[in-house]
Structure prediction request, 64 residues.
Amino acid sequence: MLVVIGYGGFDSEINELIEKHFTSGSKIFLVEPFPGEGTRAFCARFGAVLIEKKPGELEISDFL
Prediction:
């Protein structure tokens, strides 16, 4: 499982690392209260679950 907090999705080197190490059978969660186009594209590309909350609002159930 990978939990990413506050990422816009535009860093190609970070995306490459995620693609290499976390896309095969890994669950990816992206926490972003105000997602932009890049964040939504990242989620679509990697099959990530977008959680539109601030970190202080997160609950365990968000990751189940």
In short: The mean pLDDT is 95. The chain has one domain: 2-55.
